[in-house]
Design a protein that fits this description.
- The protein is an alpha/beta fold and about 240 residues long.
- It has a single domain, classed as Rossmann fold (3-Layer(aba) Sandwich), CATH 3.40.50.
- Helices cover about 35% and strands about 20% of the residues.
- It contains 6 helices and 9 strands; from the N terminus they run βαβαβαβαββββααβ.
- The chain has helices at about 15-30, 50-65, 80-95, 110-125, 170-180, 200-215, and strands at about 5-10, 35-40, 65-75, 100, 135, 140, 150, 160-165, 220-225.
- The strands form 2 sheets. It has a 7-stranded mixed β-sheet, sandwiched between helices.
- A hairpin with a 3-residue loop joins strand 5 (about 135) and strand 6.
- Helix 2 runs antiparallel to helix 5 (about 170-180).
- The longest helix is centred in the last third of the chain and has 17 residues, at about 200-215.
- It starts with a strand and ends in a 13-residue tail after the last strand.
- One of its GO terms (molecular function) is hydrolase activity, acting on carbon-nitrogen (but not peptide) bonds, in linear amides.
- This is Bacillithiol biosynthesis deacetylase BshB1.
- One of its GO terms (biological process) is bacillithiol biosynthetic process.
- Pfam families: PIG-L.
Length: about 240
Amino acid sequence: MKLDILAFGAHPDDVELGCGATVAKEISLGKKVGIVDLTRGELGTRGSAEIRDMEAAKAAEILGVAVRENLRFRDGFFVNDETHQLEIIKMIRKYRPEIVLCNAIDDRHIDHGKGSKLVSDACFLSGLRRIETKIDGGIVQEAWRPKLVYHYIQWKNIEPDFVVDVTGFMDKKIDAVMAYSSQFYDPNSNEPVSPIATKNFTESIEYRAKDLGRLIFSDYAEGFTVERYVAVNSLGNLI
């Protein structure tokens, strides 16, 4: 299956929180989008890996993604090395996306920055034909390099290089995020409180998108950073 967009997240819920509305919008426009989670989020303060597996499947269904896979790297301890790069290269070559979305370049959680660099490096290496990867019983994969790599924004208020107008898709994003009911604010929960399990964080999902939207004279927006200049065919392509 060839995808138009492949979104990577260090943990299940990263993609939903960082660019869930953008994913939903692109799918509505007929794009095929997939998600690859690097870990199962097994070190999370609340819930469990098994619960996160079920929540991730539910969130994927809400967004309407074509496929979702989990590489089962070690939460908190995966590194940017050849072994991990090769596993991501296999995903890139399997789905051959034009665009890759990945974690914030720097963030509160150490896995986010690590995951960002790991995926970015793998996107480059995936285009080198002398790196051989095999899947599905020894089938050799063809080299493939995504045309574009964009990084979504997470906990930290990183200045975006561009924003996507996601007006009309915030409800779907919030529904997908709230599919991870074990992770977020619940006044009736007896589990420990984590930074994302607060009412303030839940409310921030909407008010951050509103603030970015305000800056482009729209209702909601999601921001991204780039690795190279964004090119347009003409000034008329810019809103």
